[in-house]
Amino acid sequence: MTEPGAEPTAENAAEAGTAATAGADVVAGTQRAYTRIARRYAQRWSSASNPWIEAAADRFTAPLPAGALVADVGCGPGNDTLRLRERGLRVHGFDLSHAMLTARDVPGQVRADLRALPLADAALDGLWCVAVLLHIPRKAVPAALAEFHRVLRPGGHALITIAEGDGEGWEPYAHPSGADEAVERYFVYHAREAFAGLLAAAGFEILWTGCATTHRTWLSLHLRRIRGVH
Ligand SMILES: C[S@@+](CC[C@H](N)C(=O)[O-])C[C@H]1O[C@@H](n2cnc3c(N)ncnc32)[C@H](O)[C@@H]1O
């Protein structure tokens, strides 16, 4: 299904003989969906109790000094930005969607693409990226991980949550009030071993892996940046 006026989806791009699943069209199509669902998304998740995210935040925060500089990459409305600030971290949020960034108006957020973050090399003590790489086409994930490695200082920590599974494709936005078939986001699922291989290649050591199941199976990985790859 294609939104009215939308750029090519994976399906119609394939018909056109282009490789949209590897690039910008997929990300842009998903961003158009977030423009439409931002308020509903923010309302749904800002008050939701999320014990596994709280536990991941505790784990991520523990090795970082008070006031450590952290990026919440793909921060959306900023729920986790606030969660991490409550734990004493200095957190800036980055997200591609203006609508998501303004849904709660959390201060200290910047519109940016995670594939080219507006940060100097080794600028960060920590990087938090929850439920975001699931929108990045599989072929683009190694470059995204290389970007995360670039902006983290040696020994810096990352917490990444991905959707575990197989395949990738467009899915309708599902809300408790009923699925909105007109709004589709592109989802990419990763097998645990394959994703571990990508992390190792990008220069990350896995410190801990956790799994939580809601409407998806979430794989959270606590990582340390171990060496230069550039
Ligand atoms: C499922 S939401 C997660 C938001 C937030 N991390 C949370 O857990 O509530 C995915 C977010 O990723 C953002 N996103 C998707 N692709 C992105 C990209 N290339 N660069 C930056 N943000 C992106 C979307 O705009 C959206 O806000």
The small molecules bound here are: S-adenosylmethionine
* Biggest sheet overview: 7 strands, mixed
Examine the secondary-structure arrangement and name the CATH architecture. 3-Layer(aba) Sandwich
Number of helices: 7
- CATH top level class name: Alpha Beta
Radius of gyration equals 17 Å
Q: How many structural domains does the protein architecture include?
A: 1
InterPro entries: Methyltransf_11 (IPR013216), Methyltransf_Superfamily (IPR050508), SAM-dependent_MTases_sf (IPR029063)
Protein name: Class I SAM-dependent methyltransferase
Pfam family, one: Methyltransf_11
Domain Methyltransferase type: 72-160
What does this structure look like?
The protein is α/β, with parallel strands linked by helices. The chain has one domain: Rossmann fold (3-Layer(aba) Sandwich). 33% of the residues lie in helices and 31% in strands. It has helices spanning 10-16, 24-46, 51-61, 79-85, 98-102, 141-151, 192-202; strands spanning 69-73, 90-95, 109-111, 124-130, 152-163, 168-175, 178-188, 204-213, 217-225. A 7-stranded mixed beta sheet has the order 3-2-1-4-5-9-8, sandwiched between helices. The protein has a two-stranded antiparallel ribbon with strand order 6-7. Mean pLDDT is 88; it is low at 1-22. S-adenosylmethionine binds next to helix 2 and helix 4.
